[in-house]
Fold this protein.
Amino acid sequence: MNSLRTRVSTRVSTLDARRRHRALARAILRLLPEPESWLDVGTGDAHFPETAKALFPYTSFDGVDPTPRVVRARAAERIEEAYAGHLTDPHITTTLQSRYDVVTLLRDRSPAPDPDAELRAALTVLRPGGLLLLEGPPDALRTQLGPHDCELVTEHRGLQDRLPPPQRLIARRRQQLQNQQLQNRQP
């Protein structure tokens, strides 16, 4: 009997994760319908990219993770390129600099030794104008994003009054040209 409960519980949690992953991908779909490239940080077995591919069939999904699961995810063709290690590794960050239209930092990823350094690295691999999808308490995420060169993107939600606020935040890396124009305006 316990075995059956365990299997049912596992199946329900898997369905919940897929539902959450679809909702996260849909949030990007509204803002950027066809990104060329997407990096999932802490991808593990790459379940998020696997789910998001249904909405973004022409997007190249890559993953970075400190565990060997990322290599298995590549072999299972859930991601196109696998990077074993932390995103904060200078070799990985330099190789991937300004390469991605979208970068995801989800709550179920492997914990980073230095979350602020990981956020800086994520912004480094993001193209100017690219989207950063963060999952977690929005107030804490806003505080983390404060000193970085990005703007928060508001999401339009039709059922805003009926549903609790999402535990995610989307930020856009500012275009270099916009930054130069703002600097030129200052005395």
